[in-house]
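User: C-alpha cells for folate gamma-glutamyl hydrolase, please.
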Amino acid sequence: LVNGVIFTGGWAKKYEYFEIVNKIFNKALERNDAGEHFPVYGICLGFELMSIIISQSRDILERFDAEDNASTLQFVENVNIQGTLFQRFPPELLKKLNTECLVMQKHKYGITPENFRGDPALSSFFEILTTCVDENNKTYVSTVKAKRYPVTGFQWHPEKNAFEWGSSAIPHSEDAIQVAQLAA
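Assistant: Done. Predicted C-alpha cells:
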C-alpha cells in the first residue's frame, strides 16, 4: 500500500526516469483530487523534475554553483509557515536556519525567484517558502509548497545531515540533525 511518494535527488532528468516521475506525479495529484491525502516530497532532482512537469519546460532550470556546500535558508518575507513542514520547527531553530549553515546543497540547477514567479504554471501551483544563495551569490528557490496539494519541493537535502557521512561539508550538528528529523 503506497500512501505517498518521495522523488529523491540524483542526476537522471530525461528518458524513462522522467516519464515515470511524470506519471507518478500526475497520479498523486489525481489521488488528491479524489479526496485521498497523498503527499509528495521532491528533493533536489525531484523538485527539479516537478518544476519541469508543472511548467512544461525543461528550460525552466538554470545553472547554479551549489554542488557541495552547506547553507542557510532565507524565509520569504511575510511567509506563513502554517500548513508547511516548517510549522513543526521550534522558533529558535527557525531563527538558526536563517543564520547558520544547517542544510546541505548538492545541485547544479535551480530556479531564480524571478523566473519562478514569472512562470504562470509554477507560480499558480507552488508558493515559495525559502531561498538560498549559491557560491556566486545567485539566489535560487530552495523550498516550496503546493497551494492546493500536499506537495513540498526542496532544492536542498534534508536527508543528508542525518544519514550521509562521506563529505565534511555536510552539517552534522545537533541542530542540523534536528532539521533533518523535522523535515521528514
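User: Anything notable?

Assistant: The mean pLDDT is 94.
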